[in-house]
Structure formats: C-alpha cells, structure tokens
Amino acid sequence: MTIDLASSRGPGAALISLHARAESLLASIPHALPLLALRLALAIPFFKSGLTKWDGFLTLSSGAQYLFQEEFKLHIFGSQYAYPMPLTMAAAAGIAELVLPVLLVLGLFTRYAALGLLTMTAVIQLTIPDGWANFHLPWAAMALALVVYGSGRIGLDPLLKKSRRLSPRDSQF
C-alpha cells in the first residue's frame, strides 16, 4: 500500500508544502553571494600567510627563508625532497599569496587566481601532508568551485566581459 502524502490534507501535506516553500526561498538566493563568500574565505588565509613572508617591500622575512631552505620538504612517493631554488620559491609563494587573494576579492581574473591558489594548495599538500582534512581539502574545494563558476556578478570580471562585448572590433582593410 502506498500513501501519497502530497495529495492528502494531513500533516504530511503541510510538511511537503513547507519544504517546497523553503526550497524555493533557498533557491532564490543570488548565486553571486555564495561565490563572493567563497572568494573571501579562500583569499583570507592565503593573504595572511603572504604577509608573514615579507619584512618589507620584496624583502623576504628570515622566517620564510629558513622554512623554505631548511624545514619545508616535498613529500613525493614516500620520500622527502628539498625545495628547488628555495628562496625563489619563497618569493614566488609570497608574491602569489598577496596578489592572487587581492584578485579574488576584487573578482578580477577570478578563474586564473583560483587556479593559481589551487596549484599552491597542491604544493602545500605535498609539503605538509597532514593538513589535508583541516585546510587543504576545503581550500581545494573552494578554489575548484571558483575555477568552474568564476566570480559571479559581484566582481570586476563581469564588467570586463561586458566592456569586451561593447568595444568595437578592429576593422581590417
């Protein structure tokens, strides 16, 4: 025997109706809001980390130098390898951790900034394998969502797309 809760007039129908209204309300949230939240949530930890790598304009902190030269190792296939060109890697990481989050917050070149942070997350995972559940997995999920969906309407990317559509094409003679 099957009971059709939707057609009955009892508490089941009221519950289904309430569920349908809640679903409709939740579905009406503009997609740009969660995308903005993802951009901010991903930008903050990377930007804060980037600030710790500098003692001034393009002057690597002694802590960053030490970590990249002595502490950080790439864990690959059960072995540990020193970072190649550790000071260059530290500077590149420090620059990326400042520039890419700013781009995310602005919603400018969002997909590329998120792809850069996704790549950094993969390298960080190889460096600190124990951080996957608490940090790396959420960062990777946020970055991947932004790579796929972009900035949403709240950002500069849609303005660039719009201005590109409106700009006159170069005519060839």
Task: Please report the distance between the alpha carbons of the first and last residues.
Answer: 77 Å
What percent strand?
5-15%
H/E series:
HHEEHEEHHHH
Residues in helices, as a percent range: 55-70%
Strand order of the largest sheet: 1-2
DSSP strand tally: 4
Q: What best-fitting shape do the alpha-carbon axes yield?
A: extended
Instruction: Supply Rg.
Output: 23 Å
Low-confidence blocks of residues: none
Largest sheet: 2 strands, antiparallel
Helix-and-strand structural type: mainly alpha
**Arithmetic mean of pLDDT:** 91
Count of alpha and pi helical runs: 7
Overview of the structural elements:
This protein is 66% helix and 8% strand. The chain is extended, with a radius of gyration of 23 Å. The protein has helices spanning 11-27, 32-52, 62-71, 86-106, 110-127, 132-149, 157-166; strands at residues 54-56, 59-60, 73-76, 79-82. Helix 2 (32-52) packs antiparallel against helix 4 (86-106). It has 173 residues and is mainly alpha-helical. The strands form two sheets. A two-stranded antiparallel ribbon has the order 1-2. Strands 3-4 form a two-stranded antiparallel ribbon. The protein contains seven helices and four strands, in the order H-H-E-E-H-E-E-H-H-H-H. The mean pLDDT is 91. The N and C termini lie far apart (77 Å).
